[in-house]
Each structure stands twice: as structure tokens, then as C-alpha cells.
Amino acid sequence: MEHVKELNDCEELVPSELGTKEYWDKTYVNGMKHFKESGVVDEGWFGEDSSLRVVKWLRSEQEVKKNDKIVDIGCGNGLLLLELAHEGFTDLTGFDYSTNAVELAKAIATQQEVAIKFEVRDVLNDDLEPELFDIALDKGTYDAVSLHNDNTREKRVQYINNVWKILKSKGKFVITSCNWTEKELVTHFNFKFSLHHVIPTPSFKFGGKTGNVVTSVIFEKREDIL
């Protein structure tokens, strides 16, 4: 596949059940059961702080408008989009390949009386129709793709190509990862995207080295490539 050679120096992650659709289908079945019984929504993989950092950046960035067309790729239960809706963003869409996730996200949005469009769509699908967005969000989806146990590098390239394809000219891609560092993400995405901004995240020190629990990076769609 095109550009796979550019990622050959990147060591792959150890495959995990978190890279399987079966895991996420089961997770959102349990999430729906919990929501119906208690009305409480699980915070998900990253917790609320990661979402709030992204929302804060979108709210404060002068280039970002409240009516910008925004998509959350691998939206899960839709909480990130709900936060944006409550901040006044009006054109919000969530994609997820799990029907169970989309059903849960719709149920939560209905409970909160928020208008968000949720669709069952797989970003790895070669036939993904280009519906152009101003901003694409990812909180853990690229991580899940990276944890797949079959043709992982090719799937990562397909992911990057398809995200590029659904963004408008100079569109922004906001990715939050707990598996890849800022340097690694830049290496992965630089054949389609340029680095625009890095959202500060909590750091820790261990053995004399400093690291981050999560990484949040904003890329801009490159126009100098096809």
C-alpha cells in the first residue's frame, strides 16, 4: 500500500483485544445496560480530562468557528461531541464502526436533548465517501487501529489516508493518544499532515526521564500532496 515504506521504522504495538471490533461491541452493550439502569454514562478509555483539554482548545482557537463542520472518528458513546454541543458547537457528527456504540451515543444525546448526527461508518473502509469536514477528532481510535493483530501498518496508512480525504482544505485533525508520543505521531502522519499545535498534557518523571500519559496533537491537512 502507498506510503507503508515511510512507516517501516516505526515499531508496532503489541496486539490487544482493544484492537478488535468484538471488544468494543461488547463494551458498548455493557455501557448501554449501565446507562439504562442508572442513567450514568461511563467516561470511557481516556477519562474526562482528555476531552476537556480538546474542548478548551477548540473553544479558544480563533480559527475555529462554532458552526464549523466537526466529526469525531470512533465517537464511542459520544461524550466528546456532547461536550462540544454544550459549548455551542452546532454541526457535529460521530462515526463509529460499532452499531452498539452508535445506539448508545444516540440514547445519551436524546436524554440530554442535544442534536448530534451519529452514523455507523468504518474509517478503514476503502469506500468511505468524502464528506468534507473542517475538523476531525480522534480520541483513541488510531490507538485501537494500532492494536489490531492483522496488517496493522497497512491499516494505519489507510486510516491516515481516509482522514485526509474527509477534511476540507487546511482542515484540522485533533488526535489524542495514550500509545504514541508526539514525535511518533508526527512521523506517522507527516506524509499527509503538518504539525499545527500540541495541547499540553500532564507529564511524569521516572528513572530520570520525563514522559506523558497521553499526547494530544493538532495536525493540518497538507495540500502539497495527492
Structure description:
This protein is 35% helix and 24% strand. By secondary structure, the protein is α/β, with parallel strands linked by helices. The strands form two sheets. It has a seven-stranded mixed β-sheet with strand order 3-2-1-4-5-9-6, with helices on both faces. Helix 1 runs parallel beside helix 4. It is globular and about 50 Å long. The two termini are 15 Å apart. Its EC number is 2.1.1.-. Belongs to the class I-like SAM-binding methyltransferase superfamily. EFM4 family.
Write the layout of secondary structure elements.
Layout: H1 21-38, H2 48-60, E1 69-73, H3 79-86, E2 91-96, H4 99-111, E3 117-120, E4 133-139, H5 141-146, H6 152-165, E5 167-177, H7 182-189, E6 193-199, E7 203-206, E8 209-212, E9 215-221
Parallel strand pairs: 1-2, 1-4, 2-3, 4-5
Antiparallel strand pairs: 5-9, 6-9, 7-8
Helix pairs in contact: 1-4
Family: Belongs to the class I-like SAM-binding methyltransferase superfamily. EFM4 family.
GO cellular component, one term: cytoplasm
Subcellular location: Cytoplasm
Structure summary, number of beta strands: 9
- Mean pLDDT score: 88
Which homologous superfamily in CATH is the superfamily? Vaccinia Virus protein VP39
- Kindly provide the radius of gyration, computed on alpha-carbon positions and rounded to a whole number of angstroms: 17 Å
Global geometry: globular
- CATH architecture annotation: 3-Layer(aba) Sandwich
CATH third-level topology = Rossmann fold
Distance between the termini: 15 Å
In the sheet with the most strands, the strands line up as: 3-2-1-4-5-9-6
SSE order:
HHEHEHEEHHEHEEEE
